[in-house]
Amino acid sequence: MKPNIIFLMTDQQRWDCIGRYNKHIHTPNIDRLADEGIVYSQATCQAPMCVPSRYSMMYGLYPSQLGVRTNYDGITDENALPSEPLPELMRKAGYQTAGFGKTHWNHNTDEISEPSSRGFEHRAVGLTRSNGHYEQGAVMMGETHPERMQAYTDETKDYGAGEENSNGYIGRTSKIPMNYHRDGWVAEKCLQFIEEDRIDTERPLFLYLSFLKPHAGFNVPKEFEDLYSLESIPDIEQPPWDMEADTHLSSTDALNPESLKDYHEKRDVWEAMSPLERRRTTLRYWANCSWLDHYFGQVLESLREHGALDNALIVFCSDHGEMLGERRFRFSKYCLYESSVRVPLILSGSFIHQNKRGITDDRPAELTDLVPTLSTVAGLKRNPMLPGLNLLDDQLRKGSFCEFHGKGVPVHAAPAYMWRTSEWKLILYLEGAIGDAGEASHEIQGELYHIVKDPREFVNIYSNDEFAKIREQLKTELLMHLAVVWAKAPAFNSLRGKVGLEPLQS
Questions:
Q1: What is the pLDDT of residues 96-116, one digit of tens each?
Q2: What is the pLDDT of residue 113?
Q3: pLDDT tens across 62-107, in order?
Q4: So what's the pLDDT on residue 9?
Q5: Do the beta carbons of residue 448 and residue 425 sit within 8 Å?
Q6: Starting at the edge strand that comes first in sequence, how are the strands of the sheet with 400-404 ordered?
Q7: pLDDT per residue over 262-298, tens digit each?
Q8: Alpha-carbon distance 361 to 375, whole Å?
Q9: Mean residue pLDDT across the chain
């Protein structure tokens, strides 16, 4: 029988916030996956924010190919999907598909008569119908347990939009039961599915478990805070300069006054804190990581007891990272720097050959690689139109790609493209709005970092003649990578035409 595929995911978890890379972090269950599998140490997301990153991962296409470039985008028409998402591919490959937690597809409204869960046969979402994340065909926390949702909302009511204001990042010790949290409810639903013998033993299982944290806000149960002490947490290293230089991040700030205002408000709060007070945010972020690791452990143990891990491939990843106060007290994501674009990525389980368990794969990797990898494991032919590679093959790409188009409010920014190798990072960008980009293509700006020697990306050497050769080489690699990716678009659109869909617009 085909192996079960267990897909574990977090939201906004830095690549270095697992015990494998950080001696301070308590993530024993994820560390066990690393010890029994393959760790992809150079993995990156394809957009440094939730919606485009998750679309890209689930469809195996880059954000610009999908037309989903910011959190304010999305494909709401079920009849106009650009390709089949991962759960639907698994379903068509003969898998029982069960999805618990966040996808952030934002795809259904009450106007659609036919419920759609995009391939999931069982679906539970720890949100409410009214907040724009409703999925028809899904069990919603806000409908089944409104009292829990209300208690959670009351505890986080001063955290602001997305729970990302200063209060959200400062956080608090949670006073409500763990299963009153959205992730606690999702874990509960997942465990009920397994323990109530709802797994179809006649089919392989594709189980997707995706949590909302460690994304802010940082309201964390005390038992996980108690795993850490403020005295042992290192301070966030800050750059030698006081203000952001001419970078794609400063360009985004200039285009979005509200975002810049939010940054300065947070900076004012954090500069007024003592170093020990600042560490409280790091502590609660790490505690969130440990809390989710606890749930992963519970689910994996339950699956093991029910025989579902005897023949299984286990995936662990996150959608993007978190700046966590770097670069003069920047928080959240929304940039192309390491802490934002790098993600933890592990393939583990009994499906991994014994001689590959416990190794680290240092090749450039992308979240787009998951669709071709899991499709191949499920016995499907690899779609040649997708940019990703099979992570379990010996194929090698020169670098990994990520794109950033600002926050989407009030307008999409002109594109910023990243090309990252294991040693170097190139960022090319244009200033201003996307509507003005065509007339300003000659005004290209750039950043170049030697990320081995300068892992914090404090020194931009793009204009340094000493590094002109490597700069031009990376430019050429980025150009040809995008040329090859986009050259596949005509065939892709031709296929859409054959099934009665309009061609995908770039």
A1: 999 999 998 765 555 544 556
A2: 47
A3: 999 998 999 988 887 777 778 889 999 999 999 999 999 999 876 5
A4: 98
A5: yes
A6: 400-404, 416-420, 424-429, 445-450
A7: 999 999 999 999 999 999 999 999 999 999 999 999 9
A8: 20
A9: 92
All residues at 6 or more sequence positions from 158 whose CB lies less than 8 Å from its CB, including other chains: 165, 167
Beta strands in 324-423 (DSSP E): 345-348, 359-366, 400-404, 416-420
The distance from CA 47 to its chain's CA centroid, rounded to whole angstroms, is 8
Asked if residues 345 and 43 have their Cβ atoms less than 8 Å apart, the reply is yes
Give the pair of three-digit tokens for residue 248.
Answer: 């794609």
Three-class DSSP category at 262: helix
Structure tokens given for 438: 């065509």
Rounded distance, CA 299 to CA 309, Å?
A: 11
Q: What is the CA radius of gyration of the chain?
A: 22
* ∠ CA 58-123-408, rounded to 5°: 45
Name the H helices within 362-433.
Answer: 370-377
As a whole number, mean pLDDT of residues 390-401 equals: 93
506 pLDDT exceeds 50? no
Distance CA 163, CA 456 (A): 26
Please state, in angstroms and rounded to a whole number, the distance separating the CA atoms of residues 49 and 261.
19
Structure tokens at 487: 């050259």
Taking a C-beta distance cutoff of 8 angstroms, is the pair 461, 424 a contact? no
Asked if 211 and 220 touch (Cβ cutoff 8 Å), the reply is no
Contact 387, 398 (CB under 8 A): no
- Cβ–Cβ under 8 Å, residues 367 and 56: yes
Residue 415, preceding peptide bond in cis (omega within 30° of 0): no
Q: Is 302 helix (H, G, I), strand (E, B) or coil?
A: helix
| Cβ-based neighbour number of residue 20 at 10 Å | 20
- Here the tokens at position 372 are 């071709």
Tell me the C-alpha to C-alpha distance, in Å, between residue 343 and each of 4, 217, 338, 360.
Answer: 23, 20, 9, 14
Reply yes or no: is the peptide bond before residue 297 cis, omega within 30 of 0.
no
Residue 195 structure tokens: 């323990």
Q: How far is CA 421 from the centre of its chain?
A: 19
The set of residues, in sequence order, having a beta carbon less than 8 Å from that of 405 and lying 6+ positions away, is 63, 69, 70, 412, 413, 414, 415, 416, 434
Question: Residue 395 has what pLDDT?
Answer: 85
Which helix (H) or strand (E) segment is 100 a member of? strand 96-101
Instruction: Tokens 């790091």: give the residue.
Output: 282
